[in-house]
């Protein structure tokens, strides 16, 4: 079974015991900062490992509860799979609890557990009253049917019970997409002495491995993942759902900030104009007006902008979804389906939240026509839905496409006839765009290889596809290589793949010395010196010797008899012809020595080479020419 990775969050009002509960569950104090210790308040996000076995790994984010730290709270919750809502038994639901509930709803968190904390401070009768109060407040939220657990972090009451409940719940839950392109919204940037810049965050989707080339977006900075840590332990890879710290090269701490996104693909869109569907909170204190300044929280980014309506000029109360647009002051990286929160910058207030319909918004006219268009875009045309499913999964059979797009088979079949979709292996569909992108990546990899290894026939196919296999199905990669060969882009010799136009050759800087080596070898005929002597005389370094010998053998310019001796290709061919003409259908070593006038030092390796090449076959003391 493939291991799954999850991150859970602790949410709730300030001083309701989130950090204490995290510590009781994990034995980790997530209040790291001096100010947090002094003020006994969580300012930054705190992280800790909760549980791990062969099936599952669970991490905890302790989210700050104070209203001034709402930005950090949103940054933490945006990447989690389950929320534990902590409500103190001696206080019940507070204003901050309600705001957290709204934020969780807008961010699409679907799984929750309610922890009633500090139960040792009140009697059982009061706890029942608190339960009724909480149930009333949770109606219509993700926590409406959530299980309740009574806990006390100091006495450890209920700690094992809530831990077991978290583990059981997540074992029944699907993890995030680990096969898509890697994306990690950055929530912390720092430097480690002797190591350089480190970024940290929750892996939203995909997988990252040591040595992988990545980009910091929207800045477009290319970096390399030098080292990866998961909860302070070195790891070769980090997967969707894990908290990861990545030591990156080629960039300073000052060039990155929270809100930037670390990605592995160019397919993500950088934008300042986003078409969205939003809902507003039930108890707005102030009217939301047309083109009003807003603060967008998406992933770990916080960006100023304006909200643009196309069917109204203000909102005071609204229960239904509103289709509108956000025009931002700074670029963000996002894609369809991403969740976000909207806040009023002054006076500060959570307005609402929603999801991205289209990250590539345009300017539209005010009126119902625009709302109709946004409505169609929200649902997504059949073609858009197929494209989105294939972009995420890379390759799917028809049965799986039916599930993922909610389209009937006839509609799907009709749409899949479009040239932007490709059927391969007779059963799997993919995007022409993806094929072109992968083909280009393979082309670039081969071109770079040929520049540095000009004497090799190409790259072993398994090695060529090794990195790509982390992100794309192997049958798709095999198809693209075969298709590239059919279209004259690639060629294959045995297991080695190369560009179709590539011809193996000696590097220009060593061509003259190689010619000198071959000329000397040819001049000496069949009574040659040790092969290493020819390399030394020609001034060819030992580091180049193996590749050059392999190349000259592949091109039939050199025939190695054994580890010590080799003949020039022409001289070897001439010797074989002389021996064939000077002997009958079969011959012995003595016969060969008479024809070629060679000592046993050369004769035995030469005849063994003929055997190895299938030119002759040895039977006891004789050799037979093979037809």
From TrEMBL:
Keyword Translocase: no
Example of a GO biological process term: selenocysteine incorporation
One term of GO molecular function: GTP binding
Pfam hit, one: WHD_3rd_SelB
SUPFAM superfamilies membership: EF-Tu/eEF-1alpha/eIF2-gamma C-terminal domain, P-loop containing nucleoside triphosphate hydrolases, Translation proteins, Winged helix' DNA-binding domain
Residue stretches making up the Tr-type G domain: 3-174
The protein's name: Selenocysteine-specific elongation factor
Naturally occurring in which organism (per UniProt): Neobacillus cucumis
């Amino acid at each position: 079974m493939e291991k799954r990775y999850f991150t859970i969050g602790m949410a709730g009002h300030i001083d309701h015991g989130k950090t204490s509960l995290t510590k009781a569950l994990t034995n980790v104090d997530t209040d790291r900062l001096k100010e947090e210790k002094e003020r006994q308040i969580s300012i930054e996000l705190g992280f800790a490992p909760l549980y791990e076995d062969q099936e599952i790994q669970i991490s905890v984010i302790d989210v700050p509860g104070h209203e001034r730290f709402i930005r950090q709270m949103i940054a933490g919750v945006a990447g989690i799979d389950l929320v534990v809502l902590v409500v103190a038994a001696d206080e019940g639901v507070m204003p901050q609890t309600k705001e957290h509930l709204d934020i969780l709803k807008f961010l699409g968190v679907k799984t929750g557990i309610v922890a009633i904390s500090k139960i040792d401070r009140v009697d059982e009768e009061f706890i029942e009253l608190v339960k009724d109060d909480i149930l009333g407040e949770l109606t219509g939220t993700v926590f409406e049917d959530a299980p309740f657990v009574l806990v006390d972090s100091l006495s450890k009451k209920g700690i094992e019970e809530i831990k077991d409940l978290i583990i059981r719940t997540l074992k029944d839950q699907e993890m995030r997409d680990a096969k898509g392109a890697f994306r990690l919204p950055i929530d912390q940037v720092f430097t480690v002495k002797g190591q350089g810049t480190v970024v940290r965050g929750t892996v939203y989707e995909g997988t990252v491995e040591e040595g992988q080339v990545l980009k910091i977006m929207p800045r477009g900075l290319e970096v390399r993942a030098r080292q990866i840590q998961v909860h302070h332990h070195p790891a070769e890879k980090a997967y969707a759902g894990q908290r990861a710290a990545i030591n990156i090269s080629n960039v300073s701490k000052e060039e990155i900030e929270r809100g930037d996104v670390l990605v592995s693909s160019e397919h993500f869109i950088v934008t300042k104009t986003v078409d969205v569907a939003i809902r507003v909170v039930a108890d707005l204190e102030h009217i939301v007006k047309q083109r009003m300044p807003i603060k967008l929280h998406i992933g770990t980014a916080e960006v100023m902008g304006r909200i643009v309506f196309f069917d109204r000029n203000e909102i005071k109360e609204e229960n239904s979804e509103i289709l509108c647009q956000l025009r931002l002051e700074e670029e963000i990286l996002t894609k369809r389906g991403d969740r976000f929160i909207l806040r009023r910058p002054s006076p500060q207030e959570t307005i609402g939240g929603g999801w991205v319909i289209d990250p590539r918004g345009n300017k539209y006219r005010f009126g119902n026509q625009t709302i109709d268009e946004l409505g169609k875009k929200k649902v997504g045309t059949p073609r858009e839905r197929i494209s989105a499913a294939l972009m995420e999964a890379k390759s799917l059979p028809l049965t799986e496409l039916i599930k993922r797009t909610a389209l009937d088979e006839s509609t799907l079949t009709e749409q899949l006839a479009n040239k932007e979709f490709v059927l391969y292996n007779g059963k799997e569909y993919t995007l022409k765009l993806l094929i072109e992108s992968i083909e280009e990546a393979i082309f670039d990899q081969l071109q770079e290889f040929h520049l540095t290894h000009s004497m090799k026939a190409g790259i072993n196919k398994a090695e060529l596809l090794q990195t790509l296999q982390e992100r794309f199905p192997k049958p798709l990669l095999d198809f693209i290589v075969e298709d590239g060969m059919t279209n004259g882009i690639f060629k294959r010799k045995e297991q080695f793949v190369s560009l179709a136009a590539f011809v193996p050759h000696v590097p220009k800087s060593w061509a003259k010395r190689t010619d000198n080596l071959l000329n000397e070898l040819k001049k000496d005929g069949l009574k040659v010196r040790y092969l290493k002597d020819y390399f030394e005389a020609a001034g060819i370094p030992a580091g180049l010797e193996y590749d050059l010998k392999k190349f000259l053998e592949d091109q039939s310019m050199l025939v190695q008899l054994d580890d010590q001796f080799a003949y020039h290709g022409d001289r070897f061919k001439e010797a074989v012809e002389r021996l064939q003409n000077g002997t009958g259908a079969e011959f012995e070593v003595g016969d060969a020595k008479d024809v070629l006038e060679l000592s046993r030092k050369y004769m035995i390796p030469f005849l063994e080479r003929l055997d190895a090449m299938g030119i002759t076959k040895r039977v006891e003391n004789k050799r037979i020419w093979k037809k």
